[in-house]
Amino acid sequence: MSKAKRNGGHHVRFTLEEQKRNYRKRVERLCLTVAGPGVYQMIPKKDLHRMFVIRALPFEIYPAPGQNIPDDVLRKMRKIYLSLSRHENVCVTESGIEIPLSEFLTTGLNLKFYIDGLRDSDYPDAAAVKEALAPFTSFEEGFDKADELFDLLLNVLGFETSYLDSYLYWTRFAPSLRREGGFAVENHIYVYCRKREEMKVKIGGMNRTVFRVRIALSGSKENILDVRIPGEKLGPAGARKNMFGIYIQQHALMRLMERLAPLDRISIEDHVCTSLLKPVVLRQGDGSYLIEMRVSNIKAGYLLAEIIGDILVVKTFLFITNGGTPEGRRLQQIAGLERPDREYLAIDRLSTFARADIRDDKNLEALFTKAGCGCLFALHDEVKRRTDLEEDLSVMQMLTKYFGIREKHDFMVPDILERWQIKSVTGSER
Predict the structure, then answer these.
(1) What confidence tens digit (pLDDT) does each residue in 79-103 have?
(2) Which member of 14, 166, 288, 363 lies 3.0 to 4.6 Å from 18 by CB, making a disulfide possible if both were Cys?
(3) d(C-alpha 226, C-alpha 312), whole Å
(4) Which residues, in sequence order, are bridge partners of residue 295?
(5) Which long-range contacts (CB under 8 A, 24 or more apart) does 203-212 make?
């Protein structure tokens, strides 16, 4: 009997005995980590066998029933999940001991439920085992944080594969019992999708395609939220409606990618959404609007938008030094820089300010700060400091906090714990 496991896109087959040995090694390692030497040896082999029989299997990502998810999207989600779950740690004791989230969601939860169902009379060392592992099994804060982190991870999977001009993807955790060969818990993450809503509008006398700005939060079959802006923020022209749906033009997406490199497209689009959720709006004399575009709460420029019919359309992105921004106009007055100068010096894009030598020029920093563009140097520091993992999780935390939505996950199906609380699991007595 064997089982296929993914390993970097390949399949490695383990026999049942190899699976048992690997599982016991993980339990032993976890016991050693949270309770020190000697505890694992006190657990009877028959209990280790029962733990293996009803173990939580590694998480797998599949298309939800009836959903047609491209293979490349599934591959990307699996790669992201594997990376984040292995590299993001969970604090599991009050003393600060940490283990990888992937280990917590499988071996850690198994050990927790085993101890919760263990009675002092089950075997001579049962009470000692419970006491030794109590710093882990009774640390509820660790389980709450793991639940929150897992929810953020589910959202990251959707956000890292969704684009503003194509499809929305989101996920839902759906554990189930596998009764064949034991009562193991299959941890399935199902993937859902929906094509972006698009429409044609007249911009500059020509029909242009615009895409609705929406966010899909993971945790349910359908949890799509429209990003909208209150009419009161748009002045007299917005008085006729309480809320305006927001759409974005393809041209704006192109300018964002061009002017905010070296940030990747996913990060940029995430920051577009977060900037529009809490918009800072400047009304222009021609009836258009400048909406601050922020990267990690640092101003990077403006989304230029206007009301077209009953919607607000983001037409383009202006980097903060652009001549159409308040800061760009001040820079022109102070330094005499015209558009050709800005383009020649390449100061109309983030990549210039991400270079290491720019931050070292104090005179240049003073000039840009005087023009109101000092945030560019904060962006330099932010781009240099941040990692993809930090950025992904910070965006997810902001979004879930903003919407007040977070799932509470049952990591193991309810009757698994009940089976630990009766004398027979596999037909034999303890």
Answers:
(1) 999 999 999 999 999 999 999 999 9
(2) 14
(3) 13
(4) 298
(5) 203/249, 203/308, 203/313, 203/315, 208/249, 208/250, 208/251, 209/249, 209/250, 210/247, 210/248, 210/249, 210/250, 210/311, 210/313, 211/164, 211/165, 211/247, 211/248, 211/250, 212/245, 212/246, 212/247
pLDDT tens digits for range 379-429: 877 777 654 445 556 666 666 665 666 677 777 655 544 554 444 344 443
Q: Which tokens hold the place of 374?
A: 């000092």
Residue 199: φ, ψ to 5°: -155, 165
The residue with tokens 């974005």 is 248
**CA–CA dist 19, 52 (Å, integer):** 9
In this predicted structure, the answer to whether residue 137 has a pLDDT above a threshold of 60 is yes
pLDDT tens profile 162-213? 999 999 999 999 888 776 655 678 899 999 999 999 999 999 889 999 999 9
- Residue 298 β-bridge partners: 295
Angle between helices 109-116 and 126-137 (to 10 degrees): 130
CA distance 395 to 152: 9
Q: Average of pLDDT values for 61-76? A: 96
Give 424's contacts (C-beta < 8 A, 6+ positions apart).
none
- Dist CA 11 CA 296 (whole Å): 39
Whether 252 contacts 272, CB under 8 Å: no
Give the separation between CA 190 and CA 65, rounded to whole angstroms: 8
pLDDT given at position 194: 94
